[in-house]
Specification:
The chain is mainly β. The chain is about 5% helix and about 50% strand. Strands 2, 4, 5, 6, 9, 10 and 11 form a 7-stranded mixed β-sheet that branches. A 4-stranded antiparallel β-sheet has the order 1-3-8-7, with no helix packed on it. Strand 4 and strand 5 form a beta hairpin. The radius of gyration is 13 Å and the shape is globular. The longest helix is centred in the middle third of the chain and has 4 residues. It starts with a strand and ends with a strand.
């Protein structure tokens, strides 16, 4: 059974940093793109960043603005998201995802049906 388990969320003050991690298990993820989405209360799920098996990366430039860094450890089946200079607009549940969708199409994902596997999410709350 495939599982994606996120960790690292929490309450942080504006200007602070967080490092989110996602541990994947249940199959080999060779060839899979892995990434992060977020969903704020009352808003649509939003693409944040994704990375291929070979390390190619794409970000949602509008929301990331150079503050987010995604990385991946293929040997450990983990993907991380480093978030710096947090602001209250970053408050959301952050979801890890994995799938065979080509990297360039991840920006267009708007629902859970766009990617094969999802974690249950880790909440991030940024206080002002």
């Amino acid at each position: 059974q495939v599982q994606l388990v996120e960790s690292g969320g929490g309450l942080v003050q504006a200007g602070g940093s967080l490092r989110l991690s996602c541990a994947a298990s249940g199959r080999t993820f060779s060839g899979y793109v892995m990434g992060w989405f977020r969903q704020a209360p009352g808003k649509e799920r939003e693409f944040v960043a994704a990375i291929t098996w070979s390390g190619a990366i794409t970000y949602n430039a509008d929301s990331v603005k150079g503050r987010f860094t995604i990385s991946r450890d293929n040997a450990k089946n983990t993907v991380t998201l480093q978030i710096n200079s947090l602001n209250p607009e970053d408050t959301a549940v952050y979801y890890c995802a994995a799938g065979l969708l080509p990297l360039a199409r991840w920006k267009n994902v708007r629902s859970v049906y766009g990617v094969d596997y999802w974690g249950k999410g880790t909440p991030v709350t940024v206080s002002s």
